[in-house]
Design a protein that fits this description.
By secondary structure, the chain is of the alpha+beta class. It has three helices and six strands. The chain has one domain: Histidine kinase-like ATPase, C-terminal domain (Heat Shock Protein 90, 2-Layer Sandwich), CATH 3.30.565.10. Helices cover about 30% and strands about 25% of the residues. The chain has a six-stranded mixed β-sheet, with helices on one face. The longest helix has 19 residues.
């Protein structure tokens, strides 16, 4: 895990930023919107990049809803397509008074979501905000999948 205070993020090639209700429904919607946005950027729903990003978003959004929820406050999902071949996922919540908990004991009932993020992401960390925190993760991207034009078919004469 990294703590990031003022590291500058390069100008993204694409960006999605949304506020969602801090409810299980909002967390599910974050995952679906991630798949939709990645598909628009050339990473299909059934591809490895989309699948990995959806897992990371699901974990971070679930944490924001479960542990970072402040009544009446939303959480924010932000996706940044960076020029270095990275996808940066940011999930911000309004609760800054609770630290992150990573559980590695096999018999623990919860807390293993950040272990999954550690395995799937190239790097991840937490940035403190004026109100709350942002938990972010970066994923290495393969080149986007673009449909190749079909060769024209000529009828034999």
């Amino acid at each position: 895990m990294n703590s990031e205070n003022s590291t500058r993020i390069p100008t993204p090639l694409g960006e999605l930023a949304l506020r969602l209700s801090a409810t299980p429904r909002g967390a599910r919607l974050a995952r679906r919107l991630t798949a939709q946005q990645l598909d628009a950027w050339g990473y299909p729903h059934d591809g490895e990049v989309s699948d990995t990003a959806q897992h990371v978003v699901a974990e971070l959004a679930a944490n924001a809803v479960t542990h970072g929820r402040v009544p009446g406050r939303d959480f924010e999902l932000r996706l940044l397509l960076l020029p270095e071949g990275l996808l940066r996922i940011e999930v911000s919540d309004a609760r800054g008074d609770r630290g992150l908990r990573i559980v590695t004991e096999a018999d623990a009932e919860g807390g293993r979501g950040l272990v999954l993020v550690t395995v799937l992401a190239t790097t991840w960390g937490v940035t403190e905000r004026e109100v709350g925190k942002t938990v972010w993760a970066e994923l290495a991207l393969s080149p986007p999948h673009r449909e190749t034009p079909r060769p024209s078919v000529r009828a034999a004469r």
